[in-house]
Amino acid sequence: MDLTKIKFSSVMFLILIALSTSPVVAQSEPVSPAVKPTPTPAIASPQKLVTLTLSEVIQIVRQSNRELKNAQLDRIVQQQELVEAESVFNPRFIPSVRVGVTRGAAIGATTPRLLPVVGVTPRSTAPVSVPSLVTGNGRTVTLNEQTVFNTDAQVQAQLLTRIGTIFQVTGEPLSDFPLSVTISQPLLRGFGRTVNEAPVKVARLANTKGELTLRQTQINKITETITAYRELYEQQETVRIQETALANRRYQLQVTTALVKAGRRARADLVDIEQSLAEGERQLLRDRNQLLLANSVLLRLMDTPDTYLIRVTPDSIATLIQAAIARSQTLDRDQLLQTAYQSRPDYLQAKLDIETEQLNLIGAQDQQRWGLDLQSNTTVGTTSQTSASLVLSREFGNVNRRTDVQRRQVGIQKNTNRLQQLTLTIQTELDNQLQTILALQQQITAAQQASQLAQQQLAIVQERFKRGKTIIFEVTQKEETLTQALNSELHTRLDFWIAVTQLDRILGTTLSAW
Q: What is the reported pTM?
């Protein structure tokens, strides 16, 4: 119920009373300066006033909020990590070229010192030659007896297959053996697609979990934005209702002052109106400050450097409330429960945690096996050579592998328990939210009836006051009761809308809804 109609009816009967007084009353001044309406102090407000719908606010938050931006940046790294993990079966090439100079000297290569002997003429000693120093398989050029210039080039290719086979091809064009091929095939530890593909599957699950984490962050931020938008509108309407009620009290003060001057009302009626007016002005100042605080919360979520006051239109909120009411008529508990199991990010992450531990258990159990590898090596050049060997290996005394197996087994059990607990939590949250929505529906009906009754009571008291059967204090009380009833109805409707919004969060469907 809008206070405008109340204000109009109140004004009409007060005007009739004022007109029934003598002409001197209409031209007279108030009895004392204390009865003059006190102007409301101005509050510093943002310079700009913009009207934004909830969809527009959410779009700005998703584009500008820094927390969401950081979460999206994390996804870039996570996707690259997945590419890295999946490239383990791609061929790898490692070219290398070495150019160097080697300088050395043979021990004792210097000219020995000859001591003269009496009666013997010293003989010159021929210099000792220094052998060339040749290292590596590349080409070597001797610059002098102590400096060697050498070059080397190599190209190496590696390939890991999904069953564990390792191929390594090495090419050295400057060597006497330009081609070398090495093959290693695991027969026990490290053999099979299951073991070798497990790390890749773990990386894919980690990437999916990162995507679900981003979805959960977006859901939380959007839900927080909707709640802040609701608070802003609630404070905006509270200020409007309070301003309307305060305007009515100021007009009643003017009319009652005229009636007191004419001798038709007692001076005590002015005290009640002035006290109610002062309390209304105090409450209005408080409500306006709460409005600015609610506006700053929404601006913080939008992460905008601009300072402006966001205006929420009643029509946009009414549309959202009507859509929530229409949706509440078709809620099915079993269907909603299945939707939560399919869409809720934390539930899906709990299932992925179990799969991740199962894959890690495969690798941990594989590490406990004996190592049995079939290895072969072939070199081709001026001569060819081929070798094959069967290598059996086992490490004893290392309990880390057994510990890793137990860690993975315990992890599977713990994640299974978490999933079961989360399943019960979702069921409880859903049941409680459905009960809340049903209760709020009933409260809306009761709040509407309370507002209608408060309006009727005010009309009755106004009629009695017109006939002189009651005092202005009772009229003021009924106006305050109507104001409280209208605020209560507004809060109940907004609570119902937010309850449906929270239902989307419980189901994990906030992103699809917005």
A: 0.74
